[in-house]
Design goal:
This protein has two domains: 180 residues, 3-Layer(aba) Sandwich (Rossmann fold), CATH 3.40.50.720; 121 residues, N-(1-d-carboxylethyl)-l-norvaline Dehydrogenase, domain 2. Helices cover 42% and strands 19% of the residues. Strands 1, 2, 3, 4, 5, 6, 7, 8, 9 and 10 form a ten-stranded mixed sheet that branches. Helix 5 links the parallel strand 9 and strand 10. It is globular, with a radius of gyration of 18 Å. The mean pLDDT is 95.
């Protein structure tokens, strides 16, 4: 299977790197110092609790047009780049190419589908704490490196030969890869957790450990998640009414130093995906008449650092 990683940061660099280390034909699309380091020195994965990996030489380019048609494009770019990415990957998309988005949130797939066709998309979520430690190096925290994939409901749902082929490639790389029978629900299960993690770690500028140990910040986290669950249920997603309680139990099992990619972006002075996380909860909540005061507070407090995105007063 020929695989192209569109975006080679914490998510794309890790999952693509593990598959490349297992011998799969993986090309990384990156830019700037990260791309230069990969081309000169290869791609390294430094994992605190799992085996490290070095892919050298590595196939890396800044131009999707140089890659040619592949079997699978995996998208790991920031959400504000979704539309530009959809157009950029077209030279890599053939009649049988599938595309998997491992972006944050739940809105990226709709943008990509409008460009390349919904029939080419499979759904997926990544559960991992990883980031670019320095150019050419992916830092991985803890043992969690799980990916869940599956056909969207509109394409029949569950498994399929192409989903199973991609799962096999991931398993070859030692990735905990699973197939969901309801990937749309799985995407929301990830989203409600990520909404809480990104909001609290970025707003409070700390990792999950101190947040969950303090009664006030823990309640704030619970409220962010609860609002996201209420919005998801109102949109017809099959989430249990008490799903926020389940996510807090999950939070208690995380490494104390786990944080969010949005927190990393904040500390590095990068734009934030805020409009597609807390902003999305508030925006869709308003459209559905679901109160979301805590997510609105997060959005207002961090808006000055956010990348341009949809207003919280409208839902698409």
């Amino acid at each position: 299977m020929r695989i192209a990683m569109m975006g080679s940061g914490g998510v794309g660099g890790y999952y693509g790197g593990r598959m490349a280390a297992a011998g799969h034909d993986v090309t990384f699309i990156a830019r700037g110092a990260h791309l230069q380091a990969m081309q000169e020195h290869g791609l390294s994965i430094e994992s605190r609790d799992l085996a490290d990996a070095l892919i050298r030489p590595v196939r890396a380019t800044g131009s999707p047009a140089e890659v040619g048609v592949v079997d699978c494009v995996i998208v790991g770019v920031k959400l504000w780049d979704s539309e530009a990415t959809g157009h950029a990957i077209l030279p890599m998309v053939g009649p049988d190419t599938m595309m998997l988005s491992l972006q944050n949130g739940f809105e990226g797939d709709d943008v990509l589908a409008s460009i390349i066709g919904a029939e080419k998309l499979i759904g997926g979520v990544a559960f991992i704490a990883a980031s670019i430690g320095r150019p050419g190096v992916i830092n991985h925290i803890g043992t969690m490196q799980r990916a869940v994939i599956g056909e969207h409901t509109a394409n029949g749902g569950g498994s399929s030969p192409r989903v199973e082929a991609l799962q096999a490639a991931m398993l070859d790389g030692g990735i905990t890869a699973e197939i969901s029978d309801d990937i749309d629900r799985t995407i929301w299960e990830k989203f409600v957790f990520l909404a809480g993690l990104s909001a609290t770690t970025t707003l409070m500028r700390t990792t999950i450990g101190p947040i969950r140990e303090d009664a006030d910040s823990r309640r704030f986290l619970f409220d962010v998640i609860s609002e996201a669950v209420a919005v998801g249920r109102a949109k017809g997603i099959n989430l249990p009414e008490d799903y926020a309680d389940d996510r807090m139990k999950f939070v208690d099992g995380l490494p104390i130093d786990m944080t969010s990619s949005m927190h990393h972006d904040f500390e590095r002075g990068n734009p934030l995906e805020l409009a597609w996380l807390a902003g999305a909860v508030a925006r869709h909540g308003e459209a559905l008449s679901i109160p979301t005061p805590v997510n609105r507070t997060v959005f207002a407090a961090l808006k000055s650092r956010a990348a341009p995105g949809p207003s919280t007063t409208k839902a698409g």
